[in-house]
histidine kinase (Paenibacillus plantarum), 456 residues
Amino acid sequence: MKIKTKAALLSFVWLIGILLPLTFVIYYLYAQFEKEEETERLQHSANEIFKNISSIDLLFEENNLLLNSYLPNHTMIRAIDKTSVIKNQASNRFELFAIPPQHADIQEAYLATYHREKVMIVREPIRNGTEIIGTLEIISTPTELEQSLYRLILIIGYVALGAILLSLSGSFLLSRLLFLPLSRVIKIMKEIETSLEFRKLPLNPKSNDELYQLSETFNHMMERIESSMRKQRQFTSDASHEFKTSLTIIEGYTSLIRRWGFENMELHQEALEAVHAESNRMKHVTYQLLELAELEHESKLIYCNFDLISLCTETTQLLQPLSSKKILLFPADQSLFIEADRLQIKQVLLITLDNALKYANQHIDIYLEHQESHVCIRIVDDGIGIPSEVLPFIFDRFYRVDRSRSRQTGGSGLGLAIAKSIVTLHGGTIQLNSDKNCGTEVIISLPMKKPSNVTS
């Protein structure tokens, strides 16, 4: 069953649940009102009789004609002594004579049933001074009351039936209007599923209801999916290109070995070294791809409290023997403790310093500063620099400013992407400032304390 059908039926049942009790209440109150009105009418007749006929005359036999002038339609009036013996009576409904007389010392008014017929009975004590000498009994068949109630039932029935039909049709119409935007969303989703084409839902800024929020959320989700698909295609293309180039080189050198390698040992050795170098490079790229994927899908970090200055010193001592270029450390304080994943931060330093050593001319400077709740690491080199127009792409996977030079230096274009992922996982930022022939500056900002939204 569709949601709009459920909503329509629910609103219909809700309306019926309100309408039926309300109908019964109206009927009950109207019936009580009519009953009281009929009782008052009969009591008024009794008061008129007491006003115009004395108590002695009421109980004097053969005075039936005195009661006829006060006789309403469908009514019987009779005077009864204290022993419930009828002294006088008048009626225009002879069926009422079968009702047995009954003396009452107090005023009575009630609705009773005799022979499956409802009658209204009013009894008033007949007094002679302060002494009760009999009872005036008025019995009426409430025909008008029954007719009024019957008409009321018909009216309520027709009104309830009309209300039910109107509420049913109105509920379905209202639910259809309310869920029309949702139907459009479903239609567009099905079209997207069929055509595999990314589309956005039209938004009405004037309406800020739940459907608008749903459409807006859907559009944001489509933007993210489209961006993710675009990056995935780019990643697949770049990875394929990287492996294709290495495989082409390996295939070329193996073909040389097959043709001439066994006759020319120098060529044979050169080919084996090239194949080995490309195999190592492919292994390195594969490991970096796996590491990048692990960073993106398993964001758990092992936090600990450590001195960032000591870590930078340890990293520079590790890299300094590998290059003749000087690595200089300039800390603003003697110690700078932060809460982070020590191994991951060390890898960020290794990646950025390794890039700086490849392209620097003479030296690399590392500046450590404390800025409120963050620490700032600035790595500055005096190298060839990077053109400003390519800086927005520098953290993309497999992106390299000079592909031929990167192949000579062993770069895969994944290092900075890994570094950015690690810094982002820590809740920090990394940016790169440079221009051609002006050196490069890498600025890394890390929070000193573990962010509250990060799990370890």
